[in-house]
Design a protein that fits this description.
The protein has 125 residues and is mainly α. The chain has a domain at 40-105. Helices cover 73% and strands 0% of the residues. Keywords: Membrane, Mitochondrion, Mitochondrion inner membrane, Transmembrane, Transmembrane helix, Transport. This is Mitochondrial pyruvate carrier. It is a multi-pass membrane protein.
Amino acid sequence: MTQPAQRAVAQSFLSRYINKETLKYVFTTHFWGPVSNFGIPLAAIYDLQKDPELISGPMTGALIMYSGVFMRYALAVQPKNYLLFGCHVVNEAAQVGQAFRFVNYHYLSDREPSLEETTKPAKTE
């Protein structure tokens, strides 16, 4: 590609994607909120490699419900926030994976209960 052709392609790209509307969007909470929120699903994906004994069932359940609510919210607001929706889709998938691991480890496997599990005091009401 010649120099003028390269310049024309670069200018076309910049005018199409780096424009006033894009910059206005990037500097809003509609963009940075979901970007910063991606830490939750990234941590959940990373935790899929850890020992299932460390998984908290109640917290995993709460995060599944949280992501379900915010997926709905992301599509209910105007304009629709597809970045937030995507963040919570990823989190929902990772948390459901964690929930399967939790249930499999604590209720479906043939493992021996740990000493902590056998010595827990019975709950009294």
